[in-house]
Amino acid sequence: MMEDKIAAIRAEIEENISSLELSAALYEFRKSFLDNKDGKISQLMKGMKDLPKEEKPAFGKLVNDLKTWAIDKFDEYNEKIKAKELEQKNKDEAIDVTMPGVKNEVGALHPDTMVIGELIDIFAGMGFEIYEGSEIENDYYNFTALNTPKDHPARDMQDTFYVSDDFLLRTQTSAGQIHVMENKKPPIKILSPGKVFRSDDDATHSPMFSQMEGLVVDRDISLADLQGMLDTFSERIFGEGIKTRLRPSYFPFTEPSVEVDVSCFACGGKGCKLCKGTGWIEVLGAGIVNRHVLENCGIDPDVYSGFAFGMGVERIAMLKYGINNIKALFESDTRFAEQFKN
Ligand code: PHE
């Protein structure tokens, strides 16, 4: 009976529709009834052609009613499911504006790097050119040409790492002075930053550290030129009003040699813990280039003269930033490095 088929389809839709949760499933379910070709309701329409002529109008109306009812039912459910799906989507994609953001960790420059950069700026401003020597040198450049022959007692001042009988890790950037003077005639004005190595290890000494070497060679260069340049340098690196003082010292490659102190930037010269009560802090070694060194490089010491200076970068960094153990500069502890972020 056709009426039974109609009732069965209605029942099938009513029984199953409420268990559908996804709009895609509802779409398929709907298609199984309303699809033009295979839909169960469409099939009913097609079956009408086998009915006796007088039954057709009544049956046609029943099928049409069923179709209208089914479409309404599907539409109503479709809206419900869509609303639910939207709610879920909104929930899933919700942004919690109170959630803490993801931090981008930014690194910091190492104090050595900052000091080297600052020194280069200061000296480049005074017309110095940068020369980077090599970390492996031979005995001649590191010692002999610097007026420090084999049995010279000054060699004991710098405990040396030898790579072979003749090659060594440079103990001082002064080795670069010789290379520069061999290759360039005066006027010479170079600044040479670099790592140096000595078998030395305590709170203020590390087997590897950095130096900054300066060399100026021209006619009529005197200790007064050195002092003038140092005054400018000290004020730029340690602050305005900082004074310098030269004390006699000894290096084989300079004559006279001096030790350079700056007035204590912590107490202004009155005397404190940093300057050990003296009001002065030693920052570098310097002097007038020894005439033997000029001669070794083919520069006539009766025509030209020069001054040289060398300072420890870590020492400057420790003074500037109040670091009391040189090891802190080489331990790669990020908590230490973080203090220098700016
Ligand atoms: N090379 C010396 C040192 O390492 C420093 C220095 C450089 C002194 C230049 C005088 C002139 O101790």
Low-confidence segments, given as residue ranges, are: none
Determine the number of helices (DSSP H or I, runs of at least 4 residues): 11
> Looking across the biggest beta sheet, what order are the strands in?
1-4-5-9-8-7-6
Instruction: Give the CATH level 1 class of the largest domain.
Output: Alpha Beta
Biggest sheet architecture: 7 strands, mixed
Bound molecules: phenylalanine
Query: What is the approximate shape?
Result: rod-shaped
**Whole-number mean pLDDT:** 93
Portion in helices: 40-55%
Question: Mind telling me which CATH architecture of the largest domain this is?
Answer: 2-Layer Sandwich
Write the layout of secondary structure elements.
Blueprint: H1 2-17, H2 23-34, H3 40-47, H4 56-92, H5 111-125, E1 129-130, E2 136-138, H6 139-142, E3 167-169, H7 175-183, E4 188-197, E5 208-218, H8 223-238, E6 244-251, E7 254-263, E8 280-289, H9 291-296, E9 305-312, H10 313-321, H11 334-338
Parallel strand pairs: 1-4
Antiparallel strand pairs: 2-3, 4-5, 5-9, 6-7, 7-8, 8-9
The chain binds phenylalanine (PHE).
Phenylalanine binds near residues 174, 254, 286, 308 and 310.
List the keywords.
342 residues, alpha+beta, BirA Bifunctional Protein, domain 2, 2 domains, seven-stranded mixed sheet, two-stranded antiparallel sheet, 11 helices, binds phenylalanine
